Amino acid sequence: MLVISWVISLYTLWQMVQMHEIVPGKQFDQYHELGQYAFGEKLGLYIVFPQQLTLAVRINIVYLVIRGKSLQRIYEMVCNDNCRFIRLTYFIVIVASVNFVLSHLPSFNSISVLSLAATVASIRYSAKYIYTTRDEL
């Protein structure tokens, strides 16, 4: 299913690139602009906006849970059974709070170094997790 969704995303991206300037002088840089061109001003938004909103909410939920689990795992590795148990919910709330603070920064350029560090940490954690659980898979 993941491969199918990736192929669909890649295909829609290719379509958007092909339709970037299908009307001379008018650039379609966002999906809702393409929807408005294809289906009209109101219907285009009614078709595209709910899908984009649903996708954004689902992706955000998945990322919050994954980051919360990662933070919980780091906490468990650092404590070495010397600390008390903290539920996953609290780690998700911590991550959501950090997201809330970062969302109020003026632009992504303000957090470019943090974004790079998070990417490297995510890749390292994923590699370590796969390496340590390869016998269970």
Keywords, please?
single chain, 137 residues, mainly alpha, 0% strand, elongated
Characterise the protein shown here.
Residues 1-19 form the signal peptide. Pfam families: Aa_trans (PF01490). With 137 residues, this protein is mainly alpha-helical. It has helices spanning 2-18, 31-39, 41-79, 88-102, 112-132. α2 packs antiparallel against α3. The model has no long low-confidence stretch (mean pLDDT 84).
Write the topology of this structure.
Layout (H helix, E strand, L loop, with lengths): L1 H17 L12 H9 L1 H39 L8 H15 L9 H21 L5
Helix pairs in contact: 2-3, 3-4
Shape: elongated
Class per helix and strand makeup: mainly alpha
Main sheet summary:
none
Low-confidence stretches: none
Terminal Cα span: 19 Å
Helix percent reads: over 70%
SSE succession: HHHHH
Strand content: under 5%
Would you summarize the structure shown here?
This protein has 137 residues and is mainly α.
